[in-house]
User: What shape does this take?
Amino acid sequence: MERGSLLKAKAGGKLHGGNHGIAPEEVVAAQRARMSVGMIEAAAQKGYAAVTVADVLERAGVSRMTFYQHFANKEACFLAAYDMAVEIVMTRIGAALAAESPALERIDGALDAYFSTLAQEPEVAKVFLVEVYAAGTAVLQRRLATQAGFVDAFAGALGASLPDQRVVAEAVIGAVVALATNRIVAGDFGALPGLREPLMSALITKLVRQDPAGS
Assistant: This one.
């Protein structure tokens, strides 16, 4: 996959003045998508705190009036951008977890999807795991909900339904996120896919210790 191709696909083509036969709701959706992509690009390059509405307008190719028709402020735009980043990452993870295969193979596929997507989409990765912490309470609450969903999916794949088992799933996902975040902050995106194998080895070892019969 081309580096950054999923984000580019979200941006779509540049809209021009006039109707051109495009339904109004499609124009609205396209404008919102372009501004969300513009925010992801700006926040990844400059850091959320330094981003201005003008930065988003320049990248999205829309007017200031259009921006405020969609978003009350910069934080609201970042929230939409974060949701787009979540969709890009979690869609591939969800597909892996939904596969018709044994639990550990699904977990392996989900980790591969997670790390490879972050490596291929560096701007998305920065917004998803780094700049989210600078964007205010509403975005942080959304981030917590996203991670809780990831924990639920992981626990469900392993059949971990008891409270103690969920805590273990939460610890595993916390470690995955921390490892990825450290590499992203360091700018070492190439190291991300290599995290999957040692994590899977550790997980398998833990499961074998819990179930010596390997059932």
About this structure: The CA atoms of residues 44 and 126 lie 6 Å apart. The chain is about 70% helix and 0% strand. The chain has two domains: 5-73, 76-210. The longest helix spans residues 74-97.
